[in-house]
Every structure is written in structure tokens, then in C-alpha cells.
Design goal:
The complex is a heterodimer of chains A (254) and B (481).
Chain A (H helix, E strand, L loop, with lengths): L3 E12 L2 E12 L3 E5 L6 H9 L4 E10 L2 E2 L5 H6 L2 E4 L6 E5 H15 L7 H15 L3 H5 L1 E2 L5 H15 L3 E5 L7 H13 L6 E6 L3 H5 L4 E6 L2 E6 L2 H9 L2 H4 L5
Helix pairs in contact in A: 4-6, 6-7
Chain B lengths: L1 H8 L16 E3 L6 H10 L4 H16 L22 E3 L13 H9 L13 E7 L2 E5 L2 H5 L4 E4 H7 L1 H7 L10 H9 L2 E7 L8 E7 L9 E7 L4 E9 L6 E4 L2 E6 L4 E8 L11 E12 L5 E8 L4 E4 L2 E4 L5 E10 L4 E10 L5 E10 L4 E10 L7 E10 L5 E10 L5 E10 L2 H9 L4 H17 L4 H14 L6
Parallel strand pairs in B: 3-7, 6-8, 7-9, 8-11, 9-12, 10-13, 11-13, 12-14, 13-15, 13-16, 14-17, 15-18, 16-18, 17-19, 18-20, 19-21, 20-22, 21-23
Antiparallel strand pairs in B: 1-2, 3-4, 5-6
Helix pairs in contact in B: 2-3, 3-8, 6-7, 10-11
The chains are: A alpha/beta (254), B alpha/beta (481).
């Protein structure tokens, strides 16, 4: 078995003064894809926020280690440069800053951190063009401001494009399927699947089983009321789909 | 919420790099304002009688006029009698060659990034260096003379080109225009003068670098630029001052005149000492700038990046008198800490088919208060006049403020006037998004601010666009983290 890349132990976290996660344990090894499913309000996005270092979430108890380091001590931007990527459920708009410029700045921040040479405009363009093709994003879109005036589907494709360019070690996808029609879902899933590799791990957060038809997970965890109440293989997702969340948490999830 | 909310509040701890003092002996007048001081200034400059008369008339008017109180800026009353109105570094007479300039002054400008010596000069930029009350050096003068262009200190222009000065001085900003303009007209000590003859395209950027050094002095300079028919000139001014706990007054007047088919592009990168995080010290920057598009198809374009000063009060304006003339105003004003800015423009359309564009970007951080105040006036004869105004405000943190006061006076039914305004805030979610992609909060803020200002920054001459971008970044340093 591979060495653990991420280890979460008895994680408690609160937001807005209210405890949302009540003790999460999870181990993710290199190359694994874990799906985290659960009803609304179960704490899925809070878990993603803790891993990425969202300032409004406070960890009150427990440990999270990433490659053996205490993740909770690391600033959000350094986590990113160390290979943690969060595809946001609601990607923000930043007027006046082009996607292209932003992505180049982000990529080079990571490269500098790892002691690699920064990519110049030409090399960067060559790299990003290839990924743009995969995500069906054209150059015009890249020269527009970050997510400004993008449709829901375009925003999500843009998230996966950023992920493809930044090549993280641990990718967390927070409801990347929400608000996507079937074509967009296919494009996004293709993009994600193209990134699967033996040394890249993923946590795929979703409400529906539908996404998991495209991105087939190695493990499925069911989160309800801030706890993982059941874990299993990919077939657990199908079972859930059939029987509903009530089947598993005895009605605790809403 | 500790992280980024605090972040945005911390805008405070920015360091001002240009706050050093040059130790140089100065020839100073005693503090206080009266007719004798005005006579002294005029005498020191060996001015002709008419100019002294003009100064004294301005002084009389100043005595009668109340302080302008219509703006949003707030400050204790200014004690005009405590200000020194003339302070000049002692040096061997008026120098013709830069080799004769006091090395201490040359070092000062070098430290400010404005090398004046031949071998180190900025390529393609001629500089007039104004130190407290006088111009200490002008570069590339002879090179420019070959094209018939006059670029010299105002004092020199009074001596060498008295007719031009007499013809245009006060023709755009009369001495009685407002309280600060009156004061300037009475006590101005130097400044820059530019004359571009018919059909000449000035081959390099002209620039004036203003430095306030001495304590308790005010700086009162005048700039006059005259562009004859079919000529073109691009002019830039920069300014810095030492860190001091007292406020210092800077009341300048700038007049531009463009004749038929002439174009003047005037850019400002204003970086006076802004005061500390508690609002102690800093420059009161009360400036009257106005250009007259006197000729047909003439064009005047103002671009300003205002990051310094405790208080900025200025409205670079265009009088569009010639038919088909064009006025432009591009502005970025940043207020952090306790800074206040009340700035904007006036576009006065008098001629037919005159056009104007206003792009204003206000950034407020810390406890900064940023006000856009603009007037678009379309006269009864300005058939087919057009104006487009866009005023955007960006807020960092929740203790700052932004105000927009657009005034419109349209007296011609064929005119088209458009106004757009937006207010946005750098949100915690935007910062976190950037951080999550590996970008530090400092870099994220400066990226967002630069993106916000792009429309204005690209109007600056290239060398200065880079400087301005850096300056915006520096001014916000410490805003995050």
C-alpha cells in the first residue's frame, strides 16, 4: 500500500461560531480517488475549506497531516504551492484581471516555491493551449477577466483548466458537477480523468451519484451531520442513489 | 475571520520610501504672508513690474476670498502666517551647466530615481528638477532648443520669454479663480515653462520632478505649457517630500494652452508624503490644473495617478473652446490610512462637436476617504457635443469610504452625455481564491488593484506606467497579512 498523502484524525471544525465537523477520520493515499457524498449541510464544503485553509473556518480539535507535515500550520497560499488544489463550488469573479495573467501568476508562484524556473509568456502559452483544448475553452475566454460574465458551466470548466495547468498532488473538487448540463459534465469529467495518475490523489465532493458515473472513485464516504457514517467502494454510491440518504443515517441528514 | 478581514484593515503600515531629508543650507524668507514677502520673492527673481503688480492684485483678492468649503475634505484651518514662502538651496548663482549643481542636490535626485547627470539620465526624458522654491536643473535643454522647443524653469522664462509669459499667464486659470489659485498667483516661486512651436512634435517626454525638502515651507509652483498649431508634447510630473509630523502646503497652478490641431498630454504621478497611519503629517495638495483647447481639433489629455498627500484637492479640467476639440481625463486616486482625496475634473464644452472622456478609478483602503467630483457642462453653442464618463470605486476593508458627485449642465439639446458608475469591494472570497491558487495576499491585492486601474495606467508613458504600477503596489504594502 502507498504511503498516506493526507491523514485526517478526529477533525472538529466550526464556522460562524457553530461546530460543523464533529470528528472526521480519513486517510488518502497517493493515486486514490475518494468520493465524499452527503446531504446538504452535512459539512462537505467545510471539510474542503479546512483542507484549503479557508480563513473563516476554525479548527477546534484534531490533526491533519499532509506528506507528514502539520497542514493546519501552513498558510493557504503555501498549501497551494505544495500541491493542494480546491476547485470551488462557487468560483469568484475578479474584474480587470485576465484569466491568462492570473493563471500564469499562479503557476509561477508554485514554480518559484519549488525552486523551478518561471515560465515565460511563450512557454506558458504553449502549456495552457494544450489544456484549453481539453477543456474546450478558447483564447478569447482566457483573455477575459476571471470568471466575469461566465456561465455556470464555463466557470466550472475554468476551475478544471486551472487544475490541469497547476498539476496538484491533491485535488479537492467541491460539487464541481452542480449546475452542469450533461455536455458540460462530460467535458469537466474528461478533464478530471485526464489528470488521474498514480501520484495524484483526489477528493471528489458531490451530492449526486451522477458525477461518479464519469469519475469512478476508489472509495466512497458518506458524510452526515459532520461525521463520516459509512465508507465503502464505488458500489456504495449506487446503493445510496437507490435508497436515499435516509437509508444510511436513519434520517439524521436533511 | 482573523485572516483576511484584518488583512484588509492593515493597509496602514505602509512605509514611505522617499521620506528622507537633504541636509543643505537654504536661503529662506521669514515665515508669514504679506506684501513685503511678495515683493521679496519678485525682487529675488528680478521680475518685471507687471508681474509684481499681478501678484499683488492676486494677494488682495486672496485676502477677500473665503476658503473653499464645498468639498468632502476636512482639516484644521491653515495658519498661513506660519508658512515659509520662499526657500532655495544655496548654490552658486543660476547654473548653466549641470556640473555646477551642488552635488548634494544631484545625490538627492539620484536617490529619488531621477538621475540628472548626463551619463545616467533617463533616455528620452528631459527633466526639470524643482527643489523647494526653485528649479535647480533642467536636462536636455540644448537638445530641445534645436527643435525650437523651450523647456526651462518658470523664472528663466520670465527673463527670456517675457512676452509669451505675459500673454498666457493667467489666461486659463485667472488669479481670482479660487482661494488656492489666488495664493499661488501671489507667491509662486518657480515651476516649469514649455513652449512648442508650430508643427513641432516634441521628440522626448518632458518632465518636472518636484521635491519639497525644507521644514515649514510651502511649495507654490506654476506650470505653463503652450502648444502652437499642429504641435505635440507629452509632459509628466512627479513629486515627493520628507516625512514630517506637520502638514505642509502645496498649492500649484498648471495652465495648458493648445492651438489648432495641437495636442498636449499631461501625466502626473503624485506621491507626496501621505502622513502616517494616525494621520499625522503629510502634504495638503491643493492644486488648480486647467487646459484650454483654444484651437480647432486640439486635444488635451490629463492622466493622473494620485497615491500620496494627506489631502488631495484637484480637478484637472478642459475648456473645449475650439470646434471639434477633445478633452480627456484618466485618473487613479488611492487613499489609504487617513488620506483624503476630493478629485475629478471639469469638462466645459463650448465649441461644436467637442468630445470628452472621463475615466476615474478611486481606491479606498484603511480609513481613506475618496471622492470623485466632476462637472460636465455643455454650452448652448456646443452642437453635437459628446461626453462619456465612467467612475469606478474599489473598497478595501470596511472602514474606508467612496463618494461620487457627478454634476451635469446641458444647455444644448443635441448633446450626448453618458455616465456609468460602479462600486466594488475586494472581498475575502476573492483573496482566498487567489491564495488557493498559490498567490500571496499582497500580490493578490496588487493584482486586483492593477486590474482595476488598467484603463488609466495604459494612458501613461511606458516608463512611468511601470513606476506607477509599482507605486500602487507599494502604497498598499502592509495592507495584507
Amino acid at each position: 500500500m502507498n504511503a498516506p498523502l493526507l491523514e485526517i484524525e478526529d477533525l472538529h471544525a466550526s464556522a460562524g461560531g457553530e461546530e460543523i465537523l464533529h470528528g472526521i477520520d480519513l486517510v488518502v493515499r497517493a493515486g486514490e480517488v475518494h468520493a465524499v457524498m452527503g446531504p446538504n449541510g452535512s459539512g462537505k464544503s467545510t471539510l474542503a475549506g479546512v483542507l484549503a485553509g479557508k480563513p473563516s473556518i476554525e479548527v477546534t480539535r484534531g490533526k491533519v497531516s499532509y506528506f507528514g507535515r502539520n497542514l493546519l500550520d501552513i498558510a493557504p497560499e503555501e498549501r497551494a504551492r505544495e500541491g493542494i488544489f480546491l476547485a470551488f463550488q462557487y468560483p469568484v469573479e475578479i474584474p480587470g484581471v485576465s484569466n491568462m495573467y492570473f493563471l500564469k501568476t499562479a503557476l509561477n508562484a508554485g514554480r518559484r516555491h519549488r525552486g523551478q524556473e518561471e515560465l515565460d509568456a511563450i512557454d506558458f502559452l504553449a502549456l495552457v493551449r494544450e489544456k484549453m483544448k481539453l477543456m474546450q475553452i478558447d483564447e478569447k475566454m482566457m483573455n477575459r477577466s476571471i470568471n466575469e460574465g461566465f456561465s455556470g458551466g464555463e466557470k466550472k470548466r475554468n476551475e478544471v483548466l486551472q487544475m490541469a495547468v497547476l498539476e496538484p498532488r491533491l485535488a479537492i473538487l467541491d460539487e464541481t458537477d452542480s449546475g452542469l448540463d450533461i455536455d458540460a459534465l462530460r467535458i469537466v469529467s474528461n478533464g478530471v480523468n485526464a489528470l488521474r495518475s498514480p501520484d495524484r490523489s483526489m477528493i471528489v465532493i458531490t451530492h449526486y451519484q451522477r458525477l461518479l458515473d464519469y469519475i469512478v472513485p476508489d472509495f466512497v464516504h458518506v458524510l452526515a451531520s459532520g461525521r463520516i457514517i459509512k465508507s465503502g467502494g464505488k458500489e456504495l454510491a449506487l446503493e445510496l442513489e437507490e435508497k436515499g440518504y435516509a437509508w444510511i443515517d436513519g434520517g439524521a441528514g436533511r | 475571520m482573523a485572516g483576511s478581514a484584518q488583512t484588509l484593515e492593515n493597509l496602514a503600515n505602509r512605509e514611505y520610501e522617499w521620506g528622507f531629508v537633504t541636509d543643505i543650507e537654504a536661503d529662506q524668507a521669514p515665515p508669514g504672508l504679506n506684501e513685503d514677502i511678495i515683493r521679496l520673492i519678485s525682487h529675488k527673481k528680478s521680475e518685471p513690474g507687471w508681474l509684481l503688480e499681478w501678484r499683488l492684485r492676486a494677494y488682495q483678492r486672496w485676502l477677500e476670498m473665503p476658503e473653499p468649503e464645498w468639498s468632502m475634505v476636512q482639516h484644521p484651518p491653515i495658519d498661513y502666517q506660519s508658512i515659509v514662502y520662499y526657500s532655495a538651496p544655496k548654490q552658486r548663482k543660476q547654473t548653466e551647466s549641470l556640473d555646477e549643481v551642488d552635488p548634494e542636490l544631484l545625490r538627492t535626485y539620484e536617490k529619488l530615481g531621477i538621475p540628472l547627470l548626463e551619463q545616467k539620465r533617463l533616455a528620452g526624458v528631459a527633466v526639470d528638477a524643482v527643489f523647494d522654491s526653485v528649479s535647480v536643473a533642467t536636462t536636455f535643454k540644448h537638445e530641445l532648443e534645436k527643435h525650437g522647443i523651450v523647456f526651462c524653469s518658470f523664472s528663466e522664462a520670465v527673463q527670456k520669454h517675457p512676452d509669451l509669459v505675459q500673454r498666457y499667464l493667467g489666461s486659463v486659470v485667472p488669479y481670482s479663480d479660487n482661494k488656492h489659485a489666488c495664493l499661488n498667483s501671489a507667491v509662486f516661486t518657480d515651476g516649469s515653462f514649455v513652449y512648442v512651436p508650430k508643427g513641432v512634435r516634441c521628440p522626448m517626454e518632458l518632465s518636472t520632478y518636484f521635491r519639497i525638502n525644507a521644514e515649514n515651507t510651502g511649495q507654490f509652483e506654476r506650470t505653463l505649457i503652450v502648444a502652437e498649431e499642429r504641435s505635440y508634447v507629452s509632459y509628466l510630473e512627479g513629486c515627493t517630500a520628507p516625512k514630517r509630523d506637520e502638514n505642509q502646503l502645496h498649492a500649484a497652478v498648471v495652465e495648458l494652452v493648445a492651438l489648432d490641431n495641437a495636442e498636449i498630454k499631461y501625466s502626473t504621478v503624485q506621491n507626496w508624503y501621505p502622513g502616517d497611519s494616525e494621520g499625522r503629517g503629510g502634504i495638503y495638495n491643493f492644486v488648480t490644473k486647467r487646459g484650454k483647447c483654444l484651437g480647432k481639433r486640439s486635444k488635451i489629455s490629463w492622466t493622473q495617478v494620485e497615491t500620496g498627500s494627506a489631502i488631495t484637492w484637484k480637478y484637472p479640467s478642459c475648456i473645449l473652446q475650439g470646434d471639434d476639440s477633445i478633452g480627456e481625463f484618466y485618473s487613479v486616486a488611492l487613499t489609504a490610512n487617513r488620506q483624503q482625496a476630493d478629485t475629478g475634473t471639469k469638462m466645459i464644452h463650448l465649441g461644436k462637436r467637442t468630445r470628452s472622456t472621463i475615466i476615474s478609478k478611486g481606491i479606498s483602503a484603511g480609513h481613506g476617504v475618496n471622492t470623485y467630483r466632476g462637472l460636465v457642462k455643455i454650452g448652448p453653442r456646443a452642437d453635437g457635443a459628446r461626453n462619456y464618463s465612467q467612475c469606478d470605486s474599489l473598497l478595501l476593508g470596511d472602514k474606508c469610504a467612496a463618494h461620487t458627485f457627478p454634476y451635469l449642465e446641458v444647455k444644448n439639446p443635441t448633446a450626448t452625455v453618458e455616465h456609468e458608475a460602479t462600486t466594488s469591494k475586494i472581498g475575502d472570497d476573492q483573496l482566498f481564491f487567489c491564495q488557493q491558487r498559490g498567490i500571496s495576499p499582497e500580490d493578490a491585492v496588487s493584482m486586483i488593484v492593477n486590474g482595476f486601474c488598467k484603463q488609466v495606467l495604459r494612458e501613461l508613458p511606458m516608463e512611468f506606467a511601470v513606476e506607477a504600477q509599482k507605486l500602487l503596489g507599494l502604497s498598499l504594502e502592509g495592507s495584507v497579512g
